[in-house]
């Protein structure tokens, strides 16, 4: 679970299964305040709070 100001995390897909993955956000994180960007083969998303970033 990601919460505001948790810092940066890296998620590595290591499974060969084609199942669905899910990332849950904690209370207070509004979906309208998330930004998504592709950087190379990575999906990076950020929340408006400084230093909060999650990427793969």
Report on this structure.
With 56 residues, the protein is mostly beta strands. The chain has one domain (8-55). It contains no helices and four strands. The protein has strands at 8-10, 34-39, 42-47, 53-55. Strands 1-4-3-2 form a four-stranded mixed beta sheet, with no helix packed on it. A hairpin with a 2-residue loop joins strand 2 (34-39) and strand 3. It starts with 7 loop residues before the first strand and ends with a strand. The mean pLDDT is 72.
Q: Estimate the strand proportion.
A: 25-35%
- Secondary structure: helix percent: under 10%
Unreliable spans are: none
Q: Can you write the helix and strand succession as a string?
A: EEEE
Count of beta strands: 4
Secondary structure topology:
Blueprint (H helix, E strand, L loop, with lengths): L7 E3 L23 E6 L2 E6 L5 E3 L1
Parallel strand pairs: 1-4
Antiparallel strand pairs: 2-3, 3-4
Which descriptors apply to this entry?
single chain, 56 residues, mainly beta, 4-stranded mixed sheet, 4 strands, globular
Gist?
This protein is 0% helix and 32% strand. With 56 residues, it is an all-beta fold.
């Amino acid at each position: 679970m990601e919460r505001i100001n948790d810092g940066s995390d890296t998620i590595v897909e290591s499974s060969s299964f084609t199942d669905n993955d899910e990332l849950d956000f904690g209370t207070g994180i509004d979906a309208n305040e998330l930004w998504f960007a592709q950087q190379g083969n990575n999906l990076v998303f950020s929340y408006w709070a400084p230093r909060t970033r999650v990427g793969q």
